[in-house]
């Protein structure tokens, strides 16, 4: 076996073909690929890769198990700390996390940790009877989890296994959070991956109530005072879309990325009219922003039939916050990048429809507080980018529904819930919070990590309560 | 699943469902709405809570069959169920004893006005209601409105019932007669709400309208329901649906309501092409 400085490639759909369908872009390693990639791992004693992983998956151990052909054992290792490996293997920004710290990255390409994690999860899912119903101990205490994104699902799973009666309340009609309504099918298959994980949770006794909006259908105080929940974990995410505040944002054809992606992912507008929710795309679509959300919206627009899908981003390529792999895939599929470009107005026609984005070119000036060079306008560079649809993907903030209806729950200036980073404890006794509602829009693995820590802290809190009562 | 306990046809193509939804009934207040989904393929359809019974655990919705989703819903019967009902959404109507209030409902808008009029009456107001429709066969909830109003005025466009003309004619007459109106609540077609706003504006009579932009989630997540109110862009599902009529950009609202007209027509065509006129894509 020759040692390779490059990662084994993961088979992918041809860019031309996949730009027109919603099937998963990457196809996953074969057993042979996985074995060969696993062999690249040096099984380092100090395993620097683990430091890069927010939940410190035991990377050398699970890769060794793959090398030994035991995907089931590998997945068990990963699941000790990461309850959604099939998701993380696909969507973690590995180049910023585990793989960034891999020793091989110094000389060549890091071990494909994410790809191997995905391989283990997909293999184990196919071959092993996923989860046996286990009789977990019943501690007789009820915990409510608000929101069913990665933070909420992780906490729910851990708490159920610890013996608590867990109910997840979800505002939408389907659980999964951003995994279901935001991240597109072509990056994260809903039925095979997300639904399977949620079904597993149900199997271990987690109750999931959909169509339940905290702050509207019920309040946190009611759950605790009237319905007997002794602890609550708030994991409502960063669901409030930001707009730019420029003229023309209420024109027809202007979407927040949340709406554009929700119509397509959650509501399956790509199957319209067989599915009842429509979507408007047109031939030329501009997406404003440079993160994962923007890449997802632009690639979705292509798949919905746009001839041109632009990314309009005010900094340069080096600053694009999206995962490298997504940028690479987007380019392959034909997304057109208008970098160092800032929209200053959205222009409409007489019928109230967007017809163009008025933009100005930017150049990079002095570094700002974040150390990134600040974009400044190039005088006289205004131009119109003709479009029939504009998608605003400049970020999301915290939805205030829960905070504004819960007594004694403190928030920061931006409206995020203030919680202890190690325990998720908030200013209100018995109420914990984690994930994007605390940190602002972040990543799946960080949200999961927060769910894990909160579950442990809730267990401690309820144990104290329980033993205090019986003593 | 949310079972349909009672179905009534109030007028041609106007259906009333009383739904079993105890959690929602417990919290529902006048001015709020639910979002329903017929089945797995269904879109999310916002509908005002036209009535609720906390003891029975029911909420009532009244809808007009205007397009694919509402027509498919109209085919359901007592004993059938809606897959999803979520709510109560939106802010409740601000109810207190204002004095004399005028509650105006136009067409299907009478349904949402009814619980508001009742709430205002219970709070001690003198309630004058004006309800209107194109003609008498499609005028709904007349008896119910009479029961919660001190005075009920009826208008029809064709004069088949009550005074011929528009609800705004009646409103002008009240103002001209010197009635001291503390508040006007008007719900109906956007054109009607805009006309009411124009009638009360010169007199600076506080006027509240309930807006119905196109919605998806109803929780402030998608931003699709945004409307311009004064200098600000508001999300109708969480900041509303009720707003100060004198601040609302009605033209913008009307334009946004038409965003999917071509697709909606296409969908209806698709449905009527199915055998027997019953829509395949909504069968369960
Ligand atoms: C389009 C898109 C692409 C992304 N791509 C990536 C990626 O490639 N890699 C990555 O690591 N991260 C990515 N992210 C970020 C990642 O998805 C989030 O950081 C993560 O999902 C946060 O998890 P969470 O559990 O905190 O919240 P969410 O996933 O947002 O879930 C919150 C849930 O709470 C529900 N909820 C909200 N309010 C209430 C209420 N009042 N009552 C009941 N329920 C409520 C919501 O409906 C939702 O289901 C992406 C995000 C988006 C939007
Ligand atoms: C807060 C609120 C309360 C409402 N209350 C009632 C009510 O009590 N009774 C009633 O009959 N109608 C009510 N509506 C309007 C109702 O939601 C629409 O008539 C319905 O969605 C039409 O769906 P369709 O598929 O049958 O028709 P379509 O042919 O798809 O649409 C017909 C028209 O309805 C509007 N519409 C379409 N989709 C939506 C949507 N997702 N959200 C809002 N409007 C939409 C558009 O203007 C469209 O042109 C309310 C709307 C809102 C926002
Ligand atoms: S969870 Fe994410 S960061 Fe951690 S090892 Fe897996 S892919 Fe890497
Ligand atoms: S640093 Fe790289 S080579 Fe070393 S154990 Fe981690 S993945 Fe393997
Ligand atoms: S309907 Fe989505 S924000 Fe109001
Ligand atoms: Mg429709």
Automatic annotation (TrEMBL), chain A:
Dihydroprymidine dehydrogenase domain mapped to chain residues: 18-125
Domain of life: Bacteria
Gene3D superfamilies reported in the protein's UniProt record: Alpha-helical ferredoxin, FAD/NAD(P)-binding domain
GO MF terms held by the record: iron-sulfur cluster binding; oxidoreductase activity
Domain FAD/NAD(P)-binding per the UniProt entry, residue ranges: 142-451
Pfam families xref list: Fer4_20, Pyr_redox_2
SUPFAM superfamilies, A to Z: alpha-helical ferredoxin, Nucleotide-binding domain
Protein name from the UniProt record: Sulfide dehydrogenase (Flavoprotein) subunit SudA
Lineage, top ranks: Bacteria, Bacillati, Bacillota, Negativicutes, Selenomonadales
UniProtKB/TrEMBL annotation, chain B:
Organism whose genome encodes this protein: Dendrosporobacter quercicolus
Domain FAD-binding FR-type: 1-95
GO biological process: pyrimidine nucleotide biosynthetic process
Keywords assigned by UniProt, alphabetized: 2Fe-2S, FAD, Flavoprotein, Iron, Iron-sulfur, Metal-binding
Gene Ontology molecular function: 2 iron, 2 sulfur cluster binding; flavin adenine dinucleotide binding; metal ion binding; oxidoreductase activity
Record-listed [2Fe-2S] cluster binding positions: 222, 225, 237
Organism domain of life: Bacteria
Binding site for FAD: 62-64
Gene3D superfamilies named among the record's database cross-references: Nucleotide-binding domain of ferredoxin-NADP reductase (FNR) module, Translation factors
Database matches in PANTHER family: DIHYDROOROTATE DEHYDROGENASE B (NAD(+)), ELECTRON TRANSFER SUBUNIT (PTHR43513), DIHYDROOROTATE DEHYDROGENASE B (NAD(+)), ELECTRON TRANSFER SUBUNIT-RELATED (PTHR43513:SF3)
Keyword Magnesium part of the UniProt annotation: no
Needed co-factor(s): FAD; [2Fe-2S] cluster
Name the UniProt record assigns to this protein: Sulfide dehydrogenase (Flavoprotein) subunit SudB
Record text on cofactor binding: Binds 1 FAD per subunit. Binds 1 [2Fe-2S] cluster per subunit.
TM regions (residue ranges): none
Family annotation (InterPro entries): Cyt_c3_hydrogenase_gsu, Dihydroorotate_DH_Fe-S-bd, FAD-bd_FR_type, FNR_nucleotide-bd, OxRdtase_FAD/NAD-bd, PyrK_electron_transfer, Riboflavin_synthase-like_b-brl
């Amino acid at each position: 076996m020759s040692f390779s400085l490059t990662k084994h490639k993961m088979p992918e759909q041809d860019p031309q073909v996949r730009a027109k369908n919603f099937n998963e872009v990457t196809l996953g390693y074969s057993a042979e690929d996985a074995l060969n990639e696993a062999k690249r791992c040096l099984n380092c004693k100090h395993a620097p890769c683990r430091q890069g992983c927010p939940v410190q998956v035991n990377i050398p151990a699970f890769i060794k198990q793959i090398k030994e052909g035991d995907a089931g054992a590998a997945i068990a290792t990963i699941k000790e700390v990461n309850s959604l490996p099939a998701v993380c293997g696909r969507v973690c920004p590995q180049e910023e996390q585990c793989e960034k710290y891999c020793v091989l990255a110094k000389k060549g390409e890091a071990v494909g940790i994410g790809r191997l994690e995905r391989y283990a999860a997909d293999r184990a899912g196919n071959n092993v009877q996923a989860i046996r119903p286990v009789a977990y101990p019943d501690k007789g205490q009820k915990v409510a989890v608000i929101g069913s994104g990665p933070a909420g699902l992780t906490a729910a799973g851990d708490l159920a296994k610890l013996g608590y009666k867990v109910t997840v309340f979800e505002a939408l009609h389907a659980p999964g959070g951003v995994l279901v309504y935001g991240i597109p099918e072509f990056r994260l298959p809903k039925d095979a991956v997300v639904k399977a994980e949620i079904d597993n949770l149900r199997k271990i006794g987690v109750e999931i109530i959909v169509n339940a909006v905290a702050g509207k259908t019920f309040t946190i105080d009611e759950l605790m005072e009237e319905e007997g929940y002794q602890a609550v974990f708030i994991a409502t995410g960063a669901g409030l879309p930001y707009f730019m505040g420029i003229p023309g944002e209420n024109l027809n054809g202007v979407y927040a990325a949340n709406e554009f992606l929700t119509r397509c992912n959650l509501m399956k507008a790509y199957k319209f009219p067989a599915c009842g929710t429509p979507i408007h795309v047109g031939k030329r679509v501009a997406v404003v922003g440079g993160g994962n959300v923007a890449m997802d919206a632009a690639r979705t627009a292509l798949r919905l039939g746009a001839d041109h899908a632009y990314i309009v981003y005010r900094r340069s390529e080096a600053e694009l916050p999206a995962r490298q792999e997504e940028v690479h895939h987007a380019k392959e599929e034909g997304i057109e990048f208008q970098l160092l470009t800032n929209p200053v107005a959205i222009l409409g026609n007489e019928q109230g429809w967007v017809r163009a984005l008025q933009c100005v070119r930017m150049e990079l000036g002095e570094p700002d507080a974040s150390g990134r060079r600040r974009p400044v306008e190039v005088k006289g560079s205004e131009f119109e980018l003709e479009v029939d649809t504009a998608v605003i993907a400049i970020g999301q903030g915290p939805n205030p529904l829960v905070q504004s209806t819960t007594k004694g729950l403190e928030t920061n200036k931006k409206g995020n819930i203030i919680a202890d980073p190690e325990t998720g404890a908030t200013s209100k006794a018995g109420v914990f919070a984690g994930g994007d509602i605390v940190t602002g829009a972040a990543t799946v693995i960080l949200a999961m990590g927060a769910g894990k820590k909160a579950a442990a802290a809730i267990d401690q809190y309820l144990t104290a309560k329980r033993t205090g009562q019986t003593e | 699943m949310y079972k349909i306990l009672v179905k009534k046809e109030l007028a041609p193509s106007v259906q009333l469902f009383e739904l079993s939804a105890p959690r929602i009934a417990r919290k529902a207040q006048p001015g709020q709405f639910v979002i329903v989904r017929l089945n797995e393929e269904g879109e999310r359809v916002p509908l005002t809570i036209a009535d609720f019974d906390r003891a029975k655990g029911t909420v009532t919705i009244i809808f007009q069959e205007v397009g694919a989703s509402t027509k498919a819903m109209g085919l359901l019967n007592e004993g059938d169920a809606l897959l999803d009902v979520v709510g109560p959404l939106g802010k409740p109507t601000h109810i207190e004893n204002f004095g004399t209030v005028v509650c105006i409902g136009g067409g299907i808008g009478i349904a949402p006005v009814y619980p508001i009029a009742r709430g205002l009456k219970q709070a001690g107001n003198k309630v004058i209601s004006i309800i209107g429709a194109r003609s008498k066969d499609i005028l709904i909830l007349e008896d119910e409105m009479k029961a919660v109003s001190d005075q009920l005025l009826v208008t029809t466009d064709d004069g088949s019932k009550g005074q011929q003309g528009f609800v705004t004619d009646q409103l002008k007459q009240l103002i001209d007669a010197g009635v001291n109106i503390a508040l006007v609540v008007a719900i109906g077609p956007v054109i009607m709400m805009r006309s009411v706003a124009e009638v009360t504006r010169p007199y600076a009579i506080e006027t509240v309208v309930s807006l119905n932009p196109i919605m998806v989630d109803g929780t402030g997540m998608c931003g699709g329901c945004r409307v311009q109110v004064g200098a600000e862009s508001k999300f109708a599902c969480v900041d509303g649906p009720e707003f100060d009529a004198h601040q609302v950009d009605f033209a913008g609202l009307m334009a946004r309501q038409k965003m999917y007209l071509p697709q909606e027509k296409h969908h209806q065509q698709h449905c009527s092409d199915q055998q027997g006129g019953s829509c395949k894509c909504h069968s369960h």
